[in-house]
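pasting for the record
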Amino acid sequence: MGSHLHSPQTIAVDLDGTALLTDTLHESVLALIRSKPIYIFVLPFWLVRGIAYLKLKVAKHHALDVTTLPYNISFIDWLRVEKASGKEIVLCTAANDRVAEAVSKHLDLFDHVIASDANTNLKGANKRNELEKRYGDKGYDYAGNGRADLEVWAGASHAIVVNASGALQRKVSKVASISHIFPSDPIAFLDWLRALRIHQWLKNFLLFIPILAAQQLSDGQSIFILLVAFFSFSFCASSVYITNDLLDLENDRRHPRKKYRPFASAKLPISLGVLIAPILITLSIVLGKFVGKEFLVVLILYLLLTVLYSLVFKRIVLVDCLVLATLYTVRIIAGAVAVSLSLSFWLLAFSVFIFLSLALVKRYSELIVQADAGKSVAHGRGYVVSDASLLQTLGVSSGYISVLIIALYMHSETVKSLYVQPIAIWLMLPILLFWVSWMWLKATRGEMHDDPIVFAVRDKASLLVAALMAIVFLYAANGMPI
């Protein structure tokens, strides 16, 4: 067929990175691994048979929930206007035809769907050949976003450039006439900070608890080692947060607040997350090895437990909270191991119960958010909204038990030997009782952050509690005047 003299009535639209702000293959693979982790060992064998075969098998084994995917709304709105003016809108994508058809049905926008099948990966030259076979040379406008689309743009009447870099736009202008440009939002530094969850690094100050309890803060060498251990745990935690976010994309997008996370909202591409996570864990292990072999063992155990939590435990009722409490406590154990300090029964017992209470606060708050959104279940968790009252009871009880442990600790010989004014430690009891009660009061009112630690850092009452406890500790330890 010959070239068209006038603007074609057909707009062929790419899916991944164009109509969508994400890549459906990446999404599908991660969702498959999350639901069936064993398939991580099967994927290479599918890939050996070709990328088209891989896409088909992944699509067959996991039906991607296209209703929650991050769509390029402004671009899709423009396409609807073009369709209303009489244009034929065709979805032409390298995604598997199962995924493409599901997207087409959901959007109710496209007149036809052209996609990859078991034998052909509809990308680059393959896509151009298929479009020319149907519409002729220059018989269509094409909307795409990547380097692979240069071949397709070269055969199009006009190029519609979506979410492309300036360098790619210049290359497109050399092979086609650009009719429209839909620029992408640049990746903001704040998005990376949110993805790494830098604010969550505050939890790793728990590594300093053993040396604080032993009153050895004047030991410069131990402080330096703990600082290295702090960054080791922080890099490890950030790697796990990224991995967890990648594996939990579908569930996060159903959550009223988590849907705005960088990967769930597609502000950061999945490919960058897959690249950064192993780099962070490598840095973590290198620093951990510097701290010492015993610390490295604890770090690896922490990493394994967090991976199991992300893949399995987070979906098991109550077990998830127990594992979260354990992960907090492991940080304290790691701090003791790093500087060769022994841990008391009292500190470990207190840690388990206070962190279990905080873990239950976290789950309770999530259920309250789901209830406010009119939902009956917490997606990706084993809970239903009606479990909230039970979690509240368990959480308050656990918090009060942690205070009871401190009360029993007052009678130990350790208190008498460590503190100049051991009687002052009793002041900790009303302060802790208030704080536990305050946290649960805020959670009950629906005013709790998804993470209680983050809430505490921003909450004036919690900061006041921390200041009062520091004063009490200093007075008990040194006899300093209050």
